[in-house]
Amino acid sequence: MSKENQKVAGRSGRQSKNPVSLENSQSAPSGELHQLAGGEHPPLTTNQGVEVADNQNSLKAGVRGPVLLEDFILREKITHFDHERIPERIVHARATGVHGYFELTASLQQYTTARILTEVGEKTPVFTRISTVAGGAGSVDTPRDVRGFAVKFYTREGNWDLVGNNIPVFFIQDAIKFPDLIHAVKMEPDRGYPQSATAHDTFWDYMSLTPEAMHMVMWIMSDRTLPRSLRMIEGFGIHSFRLINAAGESTFVKFHWRPKLGLQSTVWDETVKISGADQDFHRRDMFEAIEAGHYPEWELAVQLFTEEEAGKFPFDHLDATKLIPEELVPLQVIGRMVLDRWPDNFFAETEQVAYCPANIVPGIDFSNDPLLQGRLFSYLDTQLSRLGSPNFHQIPVNMPKCPFANQQRDGHMQMTQPAGRVAYEPNSLSGDSPRETPQGFRSAAVTETGEKGRIRPERFADHYSQARQFYISQTPHEQTHIASALVFELSKVEHVHVRKAMVGHLLHIDADLARRVAGGLALDAMPEAPPTAAPILKLPPSPALRTIGKMKDTLMGRVIGILVADGSDAAAVSKLKKAATDAGATVRIVALKVGGAKLADGSMLAADGQLAGTPSVLFDAVGVILSDEGAKTLAGEAAAIDFIRDAYGHLKAIVFDKGGQALVKMANIKADAGVVAASDIDAFIAAAKTRQWAREKSVRILA
Ligand code: HDE
User: Fold this and answer.
1) pTM of the model
2) Which site in 8, 13, 246, 372 is 20 to 30 Å from 542, CA atoms measured?
C-alpha cells in the first residue's frame, strides 16, 4: 500500500463533515448519488491532508461571480491533473504488463553462478511487459508490428532484465543506426501519419537502403507480427549473452520463451477488422485470462555454445540480424514463467516500469554484439528523461526485492532518508556502511585486441542467406502470406523506385517470391537485384521457424462465439457450450440485444455482446443456433451475415443447427471440413483447434 493510501486509511475513523454544498452541486445532487458498496469511506483530503468539504464547486465571489485565486483546493487538483502524463516511451509505448513468477526446473550450475539459473525450484517474482514498437501509448493493440517481450526478474542477487522481442533477429547490426530506423518507421514528420504502421514510404525507403534488414523483413511480413493473443507469442533475448561459472569460464547463451498455449496468429483481413472492433484486443484478452485464473505460461529455454563452436557457424553470432537455428544448437528448457497477477495500477506499474538490458546479475555478462552494446547506454539515458529523476529505481515496480545499499545520494524525488555523517566509500568513520564484497559482480575476463575504427566484421556482410532460409522454411500458406503482406505494404508506398528496390532485394531471397510480389504490384518489368557483399549460402530449411503447426491441440485460451436470437433451441446452445468449455474454450453469447434472447423453452439467455459491436473477428470459432423465425429476423441484419461470412473468410470453424443453416446459406459459403452441422459437435471441436488453411484460396486472391 502506498504511503498516501496508508495515511488516508489510517484516518478513516474521522467523521467527514456534512457535505452541505452538495445540494448546490450541478453534477451530482445528493439525492441522486449512487450508493457505493462497502463500509465507511475515508475523508477526501488535499495532498496536504486537509479534508475537503466540497469537491464539486470552486470558490466564487458571489453565486454568479468570478472564481477566486485563493481556492487552493481547486489549484492543487488542477495543477496535479495538468502534470498527470509523463513522456511516453520513444518506442514500445503501447503495452500490457503483468506480475508473475519464474521457476527454475533445470540447473545451469556448470555454466553460471547466477542463483536464478542454478537454484532449482526457486520461485523468483517477475514483472513482464509486452508491447508493440511503433505506435504511441494510445494506439491499437493489433498493428502489424514486432512485440516487445521484457521481463524483470527480481532475483535475490539484484534485478535481471531480459528485454527481448517476439522475433529472434533485429533490423540492424549496429546501434548507431537505431534512431534512423525508428524515424523511418514512425509517422512521417510532415503529415503526422501513419500511426503504428510500416506500410508507408519512409519505412520502406529505409528498408530498401538497408540490406542487413532483409532477414527481419521476412519475419515482420510473416504472421508473427499478427499474434492472436499475447499469451500465444514466443520471446527471444536476441543477442548472445555470456554465462560465467565459478571457475570464471564463460559460455555463450541465447534465451528463448516458448508459450504453453502454442504459437498462433490471425490472418491480415481479420487483424484489420479486430483493430476496429476492439482497440484493446490483446490487453483485454490478457486481463480477462488473469481474472479467470487462466494464467499464461512460458518455458524458458537456452541455446548454449562455446567460442570455438561459434567459430564454426556459417555466420557471426554477434550479428543481431542472424539467429542460431535450433537444428544447429538445440534448445534446453530450464524453467517456466507464470503470469498470475494483474497490476493494481496501470500507470504506477506498466507505465513506470523501467527495463534495461544493462541490468544483469553476477554469473551473467554481455557479449560484444554492437547492437547490445549500444542498448546498454540507451535505456538508462531515456529513462532519465522519461521518469524525470535518477531515483526511478525507488519506484516500487523498479525496486529490487533484495536489500540494496550504496553511497549514491540526493537528486529529484529522493524517497529515502539516509542517516549519519558518511556518504562515501571507503570510509573509517562508520562501522555499518556498505562495502564491496568478493562475490559481487565481475565481468568476464575476456582479452580484446584489434585496431580502433568504425568497422564491422566481414561475416556481418551476408544479408540474404538467413532471409532465404526463413522463407523456404515456411509452409506454402505462410509463404503466400509473406508475399501478400509485401504486396499490401509496398502498395501503400507512393514512390515506385522504392517498390522496385525492395523487389530487387527479394530476388536474392527467393526468385518466386520476387515474381509474386512484382506481379502483385503490377510492376512493368522485374527490377535488377542489387550487388551483394558476400555469397548467398544455400542453408537448409528450419521447420522450427514456422508458425503453422505450433498451435497446440487444445481450445485453452480460445473463445467460441455463439450467435442466438429469440426462439433458439436451449438444449442445442447448452450442448455446444458444454463441448466447447470441456475442450478448454471460453464461450461468449452474441444476440441482437445485450439483455439476451428468449429461448424456445421460455428461458432468457443473457448475451455477452450485442451483435452490432461483437463481430466474429473477436472469436476463434463460431456457432449459429437459431430458430427459423430467428434466422428470418437476422437475415435483415448485415452484421449477422458478416458474422458468418467473416468467420468463413478468416478460416474459422462454423457450427450451425437447422435454423442457423438458413442464415449460413445466405452468407453464401461453401461446405468444407470446418463448416459443421450441430449434430457433429466433435467434428466442430476438432476443426476449431486449427484454421481451415485449405479454404484460403477460395476466399482471397493472394499473391
Ligand atoms: Fe529497445 N529501446 N532499443 N530494443 N526495447 C527501448 O527504452 C534501443 C532493441 C526493447 O517494456 C527504449 O525505456 C536501442 C532490440 C523492448 O519498457 C529505448 C536499440 C530489442 C523495449 C530503446 C534497441 C529491443 C525497448 C524506449 C538498438 C530486442 C520496451 C523506452 C541498439 C532485443 C521495454 C525505454 C519496456 C525500449 C533503445 C533495439 C527491445 C529508447 C538504442 C534489439 C522490449 O531506450
Assistant:
1) 0.94
2) 372
